[in-house]
């Protein structure tokens, strides 16, 4: 028997699941590698603002003029403040030669005399926006992963612009709130990245997408600090550029095949699978998708023969109806074709979603437990350590945080997969 042409997939008579369709479109090919590059870039723009908050609020080394002399000595911010505000600018200065002194929001906006509450609000208000971002993420099931990610990318770019260009404390509050609100796009991009790869690669894909959030934000920060960078605007510029870069990149990627499958949009699904297959250098060939009313070559036949097409009925999947009149539906129109396909599928009963029922599922519990562990680790690393270690050994700390978070994320996902495989064998 001659070897099969790798560009021509084997003929399968039965309908294919969505995972089999993705495998048929090239499995983990060039397109999937491209998505693994796109996802971190599109997600990381806001990270340069979020993870640098502790540096942006850091009080630099202050020096005050000793009365009656021309000598400056180290002092605290309380020494340069009065009830009216800052004392004469000639009586104090910032020592930018110190490793803990940055050109940041404290120095640019001269926030030295603001209360701790006003300064702490910079970090807290972002979480207020983040708490509401779930509303945006919910739209991923309604409008699609791509549109949700794109809307979030536009909002994130707007917030990055406010934070970078607008030199006002209250503008920073607005920018950070909007930034927190836009974080749903990171989850939408994560879901999109996971849903374009076959199931057998999803553990590795998830490990990369989660770990890259640490690597692509914290390592540049460590390099910036190690190189002696002191102007935080230079660092934030990278975040601004990435935030705007995410918009055209997201517009270029196709919609999630699994989302289109769930929504029964088989015409668009076939177009997306064909695009992925071409990108991967393979051919989809003739195939049928589970739940699809039309046989593989029906679209092609309909274009050639007008209303004459081959349609599978729900009652008899093997029966081919070649008549030109099917319930008075003009199948030559792709919109009518899609409606006809969906009308047959709507007869299938759908289980009503129940939170309590889901919590009885062992895999759901494992996923939830892993998510809680990862979130706690990331929160501890990025938000508590960075504020309370007082920046002793700054670049060392950045690298430790990066790799500890990455390691724990990978280990938790690996453990989850091992548990799943063990439960599957039982």
TrEMBL record:
The keyword Cell cycle does not apply. It is a multi-pass membrane protein. PANTHER family: SOLUTE CARRIER FAMILY 22 MEMBER (PTHR24064). It is found in: Membrane. It holds the Pfam family Sugar_tr. Its main location: membrane. GO terms for cellular component: membrane. Gene3D superfamilies: MFS general substrate transporter like domains. This is Uncharacterized protein. The keyword Membrane applies. The chain crosses the membrane at residues 117-137, 149-167, 173-196, 208-229, 235-254, 368-388, 394-415. The lineage of its organism: Eukaryota, Sar, Alveolata, Ciliophora, Intramacronucleata. Keywords: Membrane, Transmembrane, Transmembrane helix. It comes from Euplotes crassus. It comes from the Eukaryota.
């Amino acid at each position: 028997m001659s070897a099969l042409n790798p560009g021509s997939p084997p003929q399968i008579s039965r309908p294919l699941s969505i995972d089999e369709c993705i495998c048929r479109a090239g499995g983990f090919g060039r397109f999937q590698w491209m998505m693994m590059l796109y996802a971190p870039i599109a997600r990381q723009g806001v990270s340069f603002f979020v993870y640098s908050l502790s540096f942006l609020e850091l009080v630099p080394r202050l020096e005050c003029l000793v009365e009656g002399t021309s000598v400056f000595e180290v002092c605290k911010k309380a020494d340069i403040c009065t009830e009216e505000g800052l004392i004469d600018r000639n009586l104090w200065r910032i020592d930018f030669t110190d490793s803990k002194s940055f050109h940041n929001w404290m120095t640019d906006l001269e926030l030295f005399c603001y209360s701790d509450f006003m300064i702490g609000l910079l970090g807290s208000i972002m979480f207020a926006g983040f708490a509401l971002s779930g509303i945006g993420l919910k739209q991923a099931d309604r409008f699609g992963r791509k549109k949700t990610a794109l809307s979030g990318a536009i909002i994130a770019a707007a917030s990055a612009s406010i934070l970078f260009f607008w030199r006002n404390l209250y503008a920073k509050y607005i920018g950070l709130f909007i930034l927190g609100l836009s974080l749903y796009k990171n989850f939408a991009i994560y879901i999109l990245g996971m849903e374009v790869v076959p199931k057998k690669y999803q553990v590795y894909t998830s490990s990369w997408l989660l770990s890259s959030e640490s690597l692509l934000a914290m390592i540049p920060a460590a390099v910036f600090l190690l190189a002696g960078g002191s102007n935080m605007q230079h660092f934030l510029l990278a975040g601004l550029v990435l935030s705007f870069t995410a918009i055209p990149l997201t517009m270029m990627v196709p919609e999630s095949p699994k989302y289109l499958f769930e929504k029964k949009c088989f015409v668009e699904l076939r177009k997306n699978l064909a695009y992925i297959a071409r990108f991967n250098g393979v051919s989809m060939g003739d195939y049928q998708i589970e739940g699809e009313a039309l046989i593989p070559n029906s679209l092609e036949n309909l274009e050639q023969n007008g209303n004459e097409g081959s349609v599978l009925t729900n009652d008899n999947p093997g029966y081919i109806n070649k008549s030109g009149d099917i319930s008075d539906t003009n199948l030559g129109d792709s919109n009518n074709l899609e409606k006809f396909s969906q009308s047959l599928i709507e007869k299938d009963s759908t289980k009503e979603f129940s939170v309590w029922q889901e919590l009885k599922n062992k895999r759901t519990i494992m996923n939830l437990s892993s998510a809680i562990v990862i979130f706690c680790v990331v929160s501890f690393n990025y938000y508590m350590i960075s504020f309370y270690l007082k920046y002793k050994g700054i670049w060392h700390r950045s690298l430790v945080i990066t790799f500890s978070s990455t390691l724990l994320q990978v280990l938790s996902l690996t453990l989850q997969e091992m548990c799943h495989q063990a439960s599957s064998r039982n």
